[in-house]
Design brief:
Layout: H1 2-27, H2 32-60, H3 63-68, H4 70-126, H5 133-136, H6 172-179, H7 186-198, E1 201-206, E2 211-216, H8 219-233, E3 240-242, H9 243-246, H10 252-258, H11 265-268, E4 270-272, H12 273-323, H13 329-345, H14 347-363, E5 371-374, E6 377-384, E7 388-393, E8 398-402, H15 403-406, E9 411-413, E10 421-429, H16 434-449, E11 460-467, E12 471-479, H17 487-508, E13 523-525, E14 532-534
Antiparallel strand pairs: 1-2, 3-4, 5-6, 5-9, 6-7, 7-8, 10-12, 11-12, 13-14
Helix pairs in contact: 1-2, 2-4, 4-6, 4-7, 4-12, 7-12, 8-12, 16-17
Subcellular location: Membrane
Keywords: Membrane, Transmembrane, Transmembrane helix, Transport
GO molecular function: mechanosensitive monoatomic ion channel activity
């Protein structure tokens, strides 16, 4: 039995290693089972080990011997109790893993695919041309180079959590294929999560003899990187990147996909330096926000795991007491009374925790970085936890909201909204001719059609009412080509629209004047040698 106890864990470790090896070989990136085996192998190993010990005990000592020996009977019950406890712990871990996997798939998979694809494009454009790859770097470049923002335990060739085969290097071509997947397996989601969380947005820059990896860690570095990559891709002294320039680095199908990312590139086939810079900066901002979201989600899952572990520990203790036969009527009465007392004392706390868990993992109305409006106040989500959420106001004031309170409030989420409407109210004279109003409509339509990246073609110029017989209350309804997540960009577009309206009013001579006012002359005085009038 001593040999079984000490060698059984070693044997169960071998069994798990063999099972994981064959599953990884046959189901890589195709089945959810791989993700769960990697997360549950320790729990599986414990169950196999304890089952071997219990089986050996049953084979070595017959039931008759155990019935006649009270010590053997208690040891047998203890082994059963420990095995049942390990099985319950395994079930708990499986349920938490299922929750985390499904949560990542439902919430972040599309954003992770887009972020990985942007990284693939930037990495390809900053590296050698496709014809130079065989001579300068291996055909399958690895995107994990020395990173200043990665944890120290992930540097110098150590493992990335969830990495295949323990390698910290991820093939950029494999990630490109992942970014094009329409359906998400749990393992591919795990790979994307680890990739986004443990790597920054990196580029490959040329040194004297080779290529080295550099990582973008700020918006300023993103702008500098954009200028360097633009010069690397475009012809010398060129102001635009042409499609033939992109063909040296990318596949043709990738070029068709990325052109809509750049302002005006679809219409002209040219990528301006400013449009390229804005794309790199936006890719970095989105990557940073997504990494924060995944990190906070991981923290929330870990907190939920700890909470579930505490509850399961109590359940296992109760099961052990029952299996060991220690649960006499007095013990059951004491335990029941204590549980009722604890439940009564922490009734509100338990209710708050339950509501918070439902809010974070079931409702989940926002992620880190989303712009929301709560109680009429616009704020950005800074941090998410199980019990509280931290927001930032426009003036950078931090606001802490209990999640149990947020679950009862209506929440507007700008990030998840579609392209949003905007309006500009103004007044003109009611005497303005119909011809001028028609010209106003045509000029507004021309302006909107000349800004297809800012405004959708569909708009409306409405007359709301005629006020005091001398003014028309009008409103211009327009649709942005984005939502109001980027509030500064929304205000800049709105400002440009209002200034254009002012210019149109001045050109067409459209004005607003007050009604003529009657003046009553009541007294005329010639005191002090001069006329004086009173009204």
């Amino acid at each position: 039995m001593i040999m079984v106890i000490f060698s059984g864990r070693l044997f169960s470790g071998w069994v798990i290693a063999i099972i994981v090896f064959f599953i990884e070989k046959n189901f890589m990136l195709r089945e959810k089972v791989l993700y769960f085996v990697y997360g549950l192998r320790k729990s599986f190993q414990n169950c196999i080990w304890l089952a071997l010990v219990l089986l050996s005990w049953s084979l070595m000592f017959s039931p008759d011997v155990q019935k006649n020996n009270e010590i053997f009977k208690k040891v047998f019950r203890a082994l059963i109790a420990v095995l049942v406890g390990a099985t319950i712990w395994l079930i708990k871990t499986v349920l938490v893993k299922i929750l985390a996997s499904s949560f990542h798939v439902a919430t972040f998979f599309d954003r992770m695919k887009e972020s990985v694809f942007h990284h693939y494009i930037l990495d390809s454009l900053s590296g050698p041309a496709r014809g130079e790859i065989d001579q300068t770097v291996p055909a399958k470049r690895k995107i994990f180079g020395p990173s200043r923002s990665m944890p120290t335990n992930l540097k110098d060739g150590e493992k990335v959590p969830g990495g295949i085969g323990g390698s910290r290097k991820i093939d950029i071509e494999r990630l490109r294929k992942l970014s094009r997947q329409s359906t998400a397996s749990a393992w591919s989601v795990r790979r994307l999560v680890n990739y986004v969380m443990y790597s920054g947005l990196s580029t490959i820059s040329r040194t004297v003899d080779n290529f080295e990896t550099s990582e973008i860690t700020s918006e300023w570095e993103a702008r500098v990187t954009a200028q360097r990559v633009f010069k690397h891709v475009a012809k010398p002294d060129a102001k635009y990147i042409l499609e033939e320039d992109l063909l040296r680095f990318l596949r043709r199908e990738d070029i068709r996909t990325i052109l809509p990312f750049f302002d005006g590139a679809v219409e002209t086939g040219q990528i301006k330096k400013s449009a390229f810079r804005n794309w790199v900066v936006q890719a970095y901002i989105e990557r940073r926000a997504l990494a924060h979201s995944l990190n906070d989600t991981k923290t929330a899952v870990e907190q939920l795991h700890k909470l579930a572990s505490a509850l399961v520990s109590v359940l296992i203790a109760v099961v052990i007491v029952l299996v060991m036969g220690l649960a006499t009527s007095k013990v059951i009465l004491v335990i029941t009374s204590q549980l009722l007392l604890v439940g009564f004392m922490f009734q509100n706390t338990c209710k708050t925790i339950f509501e918070s868990v439902v809010f974070v993992f079931v409702m989940h109305p926002f992620d880190v970085g989303d712009r929301c409006k709560i109680d009429g106040v616009m704020m950005i989500v800074e941090e998410m936890n199980i019990l509280t959420t931290v927001f930032l106001k426009i003036d950078m004031e931090k606001v802490y909201y209990p999640n149990s309170v947020l679950s009862t409030k209506p929440i507007s989420n700008y990030y998840r909204s579609p392209d949003m409407l905007d309006y500009v109210d103004f007044m003109i004279n009611s005497s303005t001719s119909s011809e001028k109003i028609n010209l106003l409509k045509k000029d507004i339509q021309t302006f909107i059609e000349n800004k297809p990246k800012h405004w959708a073609p569909k708009h409306a110029l409405l007359v709301k009412e005629i006020s005091t017989l001398n003014k028309l209350d009008m409103s211009l309804l327009v649709t942005h080509t984005q939502n109001h997540q980027n509030f500064l960009e929304r205000n800049l577009r709105r400002t440009e629209l209002i200034l254009e309206l002012k210019k149109i009013f001045e050109t067409l001579g459209i004005k607003y004047q007050l009604l003529p006012q009657q003046v009553h002359l009541t007294h005329v005085s010639t005191a002090n040698g001069g006329p004086s009038t009173q009204f």
